[in-house]
Amino acid sequence: MRIGVISDTHGSISSAVKAIYEMGEIDALIHAGDLYSDALRISPVIKVPVYAVPGNCDIPGQVKEELTITLCGRKIYITHGHLYRVKNSLQSLYYRAREMEAKVVVFGHTHVPVNTWEGNVLLFNPGSTSRPPAGIKAGCGILSIGTDVIKGKLISL
After folding, report:
1. Residues 25 and 4 sit within 8 Å (Cβ to Cβ)
2. Parallel, antiparallel or unpaired: strands 104-106 and 74-79
3. Is the distance from CB of 7 to CB of 35 less than 8 angstroms?
4. CA 149 to CA 137: how far, in whole Å?
5. Cα of 27 vs its chain's centroid, Å
């Protein structure tokens, strides 16, 4: 299963659409926050399931800030990351993933891409499609998930 991953679109639907186009064929899309409404606007257009969480730029309390899904028998934990202070360290996020018994954590917030294993948990941040920090390209990502594989791939835009 190929899962497209975007985050931190911040109202730029055109950058999100460009990212989705660069991904090629996908079976689902994860939007890791900022802005949740962007995921709602994209969803009817791309014709695959869209899983999304709000971020720190969304109005608090309107939608659950954490989401756990299971695809191909693998549990994926989705959060924007601000609740776990991911700009300082990924440790709290990793422990939350273990608590949730997730094999993959998708997050955003930092606008910086991450594709790394911590123990038996894949920590995956696609970066920002619209507002990358200086010296970093806008990005998105692909998660390849099957019964015997979990693999993340970062894509620069």
Report:
1. no
2. parallel
3. no
4. 27
5. 15
pLDDT tens digits, one per residue of 70-116:
999 999 999 999 999 999 999 999 999 999 999 999 999 999 999 99
Q: Cα–Cα distance between 85 and 93 in angstroms, integer?
A: 8
The angle formed by the CA atoms of residues 27, 63 and 32, to the nearest 5 degrees, is 45
Do you know the residue count of the chain?
A: 157
Range 135-152 average pLDDT:
95
Q: How far is residue 131's CA from residue 102's CA, in Å, rounded to a whole number?
A: 28
pLDDT in tens, 3-61: 999 999 999 999 999 999 999 999 999 999 999 999 999 999 898 999 999 999 998 88
Strand partners, 21: none
CA 4 → CA 51, 62, 68, 96, 106, distances in Å? 10, 24, 16, 23, 11
Q: How confident is the model at residue 148 (pLDDT cuts 50, 70, 90)?
A: confident
- Rounded to whole angstroms, the Cα distance separating 45 from 114 reads 27
The packing angle between helices 13-23 and 36-46, to 10°, is: 50
